[in-house]
């Protein structure tokens, strides 16, 4: 599959391997994206953009500020950033422009008439990944979907850089031990937190381990790019694997006496049932070739 993000040539490595985890009496088979050689052929930028791209590749003050802030904000597993740190990082991200990561609305990929061949696939480029946080850009062709997935024990800052996308997000209602909130199919009750369209430029959104829409789904309306700041990163070894879900309405649930208190607030609730990793979640990876960051602690 060839993705036409104009940039200096990039390399993609993705492969899949399977493993299984048990949930109650169910077994959910998961596919993980890990390294497979698949070179992407990317167009070079037009001449008038090359100078800007070359300059941008040298340094981005804003990207460096994001990185330096992340160094201070993310203190490791189970450490949720304090409100002041969140506010500070949001302020920096709010001021970010596509050029800070080597992108431009003029790139062919972001042209509205660009049509993907076959099922549109998401592409990602990791700017940085350490033990405490990760910076990653996701590219979605129009109509591409990142299916409903969670972020266990994570705080995630998402900054839409280009395009228009629909975001739907949920938070778990329960403490895990609330039996009445577990349906016979082992679904869990979730409360809708966001269900709206975002167009860049827009403010940064933040999700937390138990609030802010920890489980979310992205659907690109136009070609999009967004930056995710994820702390800590996914790590299966540390119990932070990514799970995917399908949602079902709570028609029967709303008849249940126990949840009258939830009905009363007028919010939207859904059952979320964990599913096998959906095919649409498979991504292509490309090497990040934009402005560099300097890790002064390395
Ligand atoms: Fe996500």
TrEMBL record:
Transmembrane segments: none annotated. One of its GO terms (biological process) is detection of hypoxia. Signal peptide: none annotated. Keywords: Iron, Metal-binding, Oxidoreductase. This is cysteine dioxygenase. GO terms for molecular function: cysteine dioxygenase activity; metal ion binding. Pfam families: PCO_ADO. InterPro entries: PCO/ADO, RmlC-like_jellyroll, RmlC_Cupin_sf.
